[in-house]
Amino acid sequence: MGTKKSVKKPQIGHAKKAGVDQKLRWFREIRTEEKLQLGQEVKVNQVFSVGDSVKVTGTSKGKGFLGGVGRYGFHGGPKTHGQSDRHRAPGSIGAGTTPGRVYKGKRMAGHTGVDAVSIKGLEVIKIDKEKNEILIKGGIPGFTGALVEITKLGKIKGYTPPPEEKEVQNDSENSDTPENQNISETDNRKSETTDLSDQSGTPSPSEFSESEVKENAEV
Question: pTM to 2 decimals?
Fold first, then answer.
């Protein structure tokens, strides 16, 4: 998760007590019912498993100051003759005498993004024990490389583990596949039939003489 230059003194005290010398960039208290020792490292595979349903919480991307069209999808004013500056205008924001003010929460232009976003129901599809990584299917809030918090919700309903991946051989000609076995069997059958025809002694059509062919035609 990286380190940062300046850290508050209470956090430095907690880190020293746990035996961690680094100034952690992300410091959070997460309560659990399991009995853990101070300074113990928790691996991903100890908490999550393939097929789990999780909730991912992060900070959305910052998009700066946007108008009503870009922020909320307003349609703007009518695109007709005589309209000069109303194409992306928000329209009326309230009446004059009554209520005589703008209601709180009125959707208007302003800063967009950098908000806490939680996405529920994502699926864990793979866990890499060696790299201590977790692969999640679905959209993850935030920019690439941002810190997110993953909460386990339970198991996906009707989850079935995927079949094991089979190794594909590079040399298909030398592999004993069913197709190659069928081809070899048909070749063997052809060779057997040719041997039987030769052993039976029946002459081939090319061995008949012209006179025999004419006699058979007259009959």
Answer: 0.62
Encoding tokens for residue 104?
């709180």
15 contacts: CB under 8 Å, gap ≥ 6: 7, 21, 22, 23, 24
Which uninterrupted H or E stretch holds 155? strand 149-155
Q: What pLDDT digit, counting tens, does each position of 129-147 carry?
A: 999 999 999 999 999 988 8
> Which residues does 60 contact at the CB level (< 8 Å), separation at least 6?
113, 114, 115, 116, 117, 141, 142
The boundaries of the domain holding residue 136 are: 43-71+109-158
Q: Is residue 114 part of a domain?
A: yes
Q: Looking at the structure, tell me whether residues 116 and 151 fall in a common domain.
A: yes
Residues 63 and 4 in one domain: no
Hey, is 172 helix, strand or coil? coil
Residue 146 near residue 59, CB atoms below 8 Å: yes
Burial 48-87 (b: 16+ CB within 10 A, else e): bebebbbebbbbeeeeeeebbeebeebeeeeeeeeeeeee
Give the closest residue to 128 by CA, choosing from 26, 49, 40.
Answer: 49
